[in-house]
UniProtKB/TrEMBL annotation, chains A, B:
Signal peptide: none
Sites where the protein binds Mg(2+) 2: E69
HAMAP family, alphabetized: RuvC
Listed name of the protein: Crossover junction endodeoxyribonuclease RuvC
NCBIfam families given in the database record: ruvC
Gene: ruvC
InterPro entries: RNaseH-like_sf, RNaseH_sf, X-over_junc_endoDNase_Mg_BS, X-over_junc_endoDNase_RuvC
Length: 206, 206
């Protein structure tokens, strides 16, 4: 099972490709990158560049599923529109290839890799680096976010989803009593996710 | 000069194609229609259907320029995201063909065809029907809006843009002293347009 995940954006579109290993509890990075477009270009040229970049990634890595970070409204309306448009291009590219599409919220992604739906960017990057056994943290944060989204997608799939992810996080950190801690963290994160999705308009940062 | 104009939307995407006749003061309708997608379909399937519908229209009518109604934020965030995504697909389709793209606000479109930036849907439909000499009003309103947008694009291009459009409207209505009235209407509409674009977040209806 190969997931291509996109953290959509007009200026930086993070893309991460991850393979499931052993029934989805472990994962291996296949590729990571960012499609950038200059803010000085007309919006149609930027969207075309993103569309072509996505096609190249899809052609190269031939994923089984495409995951997209769900876009929320936020203070900066102009920015959210560009993000929504970039996300739309991902959805169309996936649909054109007959690939299933999944969307996850930023809270779900953070909870999946750190056990906390309100984790900061650095924490997400740190956990992605550990979970995938990378030599150095993926930069910029959009690239790490895309990998976190791919992991989130691999680990979601039922009631035990966040528990599994949190357990894995705990395992990676090498703490003792890891599973019990993970279970508690997952319970907390489930509560957080519920609370945060009700307050979804304040949730996103892009 | 042929304009293909799109009033973007996820449920109904209005498309209108208009040719300029005699240096842009008169215009002839080439085609009008609506791409519809069912609200029960997944968003990626809807966006793909819109993308394919747009490609068919572009292949069939081979316009010189593509006009898109500018999307504003509004109360219904979920709806504006779908609209922004549909607009993004139009922008990419145009850019992929190397066609120039223009965006106009709803106020500019209304002012262009009625002389009043705050005109209602029925007034816009009535004027589009008159200006293009159609036997019956284009339905639904999204189709009429797309034609209005195409006319707006043909007529904009300098300080005299709205004046010309209003003069043409007055001509079509057959009133006496049409030009003087049009000039006054254009002056009013110019003021309206300025005021309305400052209040743009309350401006759009989709």
């Amino acid at each position: 099972m190969r997931v291509l995940a996109v953290d959509p954006g007009l200026t930086r579109c993070g893309i991460g490709v991850v393979d499931a290993v052993r029934t989805g509890r472990r994962a291996a990075m296949v590729g990571v990158g960012v499609v950038r477009t200059p803010a000085t270009d007309p919006v149609e040229a930027r969207l075309l560049a993103i569309s072509e970049g996505l096609e190249t990634w899809l052609d190269t890595h031939r994923p089984d599923v495409v995951a997209v970070e769900r876009v929320f409204a936020q203070a900066n309306v102009r920015s959210v529109m560009g993000t929504a448009q970039a996300a739309g291009l991902v959805l169309v590219a996936a649909a054109r290839r007959g690939l299933p599409v999944a969307m996850h919220t930023p809270s779900e992604v953070k909870a999946a890799v750190t056990g906390d739906g309100r984790a900061g960017k650095e924490q997400v990057t740190t956990m992605v680096t550990r979970i995938l056994g990378l030599d150095s943290p993926p930069r910029p944060a959009d690239a790490a976010d895309a990998l976190a989204l791919a992991l989130c997608h691999l680990w979601r799939g039922g009631a035990s989803t966040r528990l599994e992810a949190a357990a894995h996080s705990a395992l990676v950190t090498g703490r003792r009593n890891a599973y019990a801690e993970a279970e508690a963290a997952a319970r907390r994160s489930r509560r957080n996710v519920v609370v945060r999705s009700q307050a979804s308009s304040a949730d996103s940062r892009r």
